[in-house]
Amino acid sequence: MSVGYVNLDPGADILPYKADFDIRRYVNVRDVMKKYGLGPNGAFIKCADLMLEDLERIIAGIDSVKSEYVIVDTPGQMELFVFRRSGPTIIDGLRSLGFPIAVVVFDPSLAGSPVDIAALKLMTTVVQLRLNVDSVPVLNKVDLPSSSEVAKVLESSKDLLEALRYEEGLSADLAQALMTVLEDYRQASRLVKVSALQGTGLEELYDILHEVYCTCGDLT
């Protein structure tokens, strides 16, 4: 199996891989800050707009990566890729090259309460809605002791709803109502648990991506 790597983060200083296509060849946050007199946030937004203007060259660059699987590393700030027009437009362009699938990586440190976990579950659905692609939820750092309880509640809607019943306040009520609705519309999927540090769970991630791609597996 051959794997290609694409970096679409114009602000990345260091990449833990060798990119076969790197957006920083054409759009770089530091250069944009200097050229347009912008701060970091404004430069990231400007970069997203510039990527749209250079869409054909970006799609052609990704197409030049001749591998069975191509991993596209998007900006870590979801508001830049998922919520701005550049992300969905780039994904639409990728459809002409293959079958794009979104991998949504969760950090257990962000799940300090049942309401937080409900918000994480919603993010997978938001990515699916905005990018119009199948989204696979992945819990990283499962080597941490705190991750086991987070994984249990993320995997079981019943456990999450039960935990939310003991929470107080408007946020808890809203989260409970949203999780109930989400059960009626969520895609069939299962949580993949990995440790980037130890390299565990990656085989399961590969398996579920293959199931989504070939539509021959049972994602539940």
Task: Describe what this molecule looks like in 3D.
It is a single chain. By secondary structure, this protein is mainly alpha-helical. It has a single domain, classed as 3-Layer(aba) Sandwich (Rossmann fold), CATH 3.40.50.300. About 50% of the residues lie in helices and about 10% in strands. It contains ten helices and six strands; from the N terminus they run ββαααβααβαβαααβα. It has a three-stranded parallel beta sheet with strand order 2-1-3, with no helix packed on it. The protein is globular and about 50 Å long. The model has no long low-confidence stretch (mean pLDDT about 85).
Compact overview of the structure:
The protein has 220 residues and is mostly helical.
Question: What's the arrangement of secondary structure elements?
Answer:
Layout: E1 3-7, E2 21-22, H1 29-36, H2 40-53, H3 55-63, E3 69-73, H4 78-81, H5 86-94, E4 102-106, H6 114-131, E5 135-139, H7 147-155, H8 157-165, H9 170-185, E6 192-193, H10 202-214
Parallel strand pairs: 1-2, 1-3, 4-5, 5-6
Which features does this protein show?
3-stranded parallel beta sheet; mainly alpha; globular; 6 strands; Rossmann fold; 220 residues
* Percent range for β-strand residues: 5-15%
Intertermini distance = 25 Å
Widest sheet, order of strands: 2-1-3
Order of helices and strands: EEHHHEHHEHEHHHEH
* Class computed from helices, strands and strand pairing: mainly alpha
Rg (C-alpha, Å)? 19 Å
CATH topology: Rossmann fold
What is the makeup of the main sheet?
3 strands, parallel
Mean pLDDT: 87
Q: Segments where pLDDT lies below 50 for 5+ residues?
A: none
Number of strands: 6
CATH class reads Alpha Beta
In the CATH hierarchy, the architecture is 3-Layer(aba) Sandwich
Tally of alpha and pi helices: 10
Shape: globular
Helix content percent band: 40-55%
Number of domains: 1
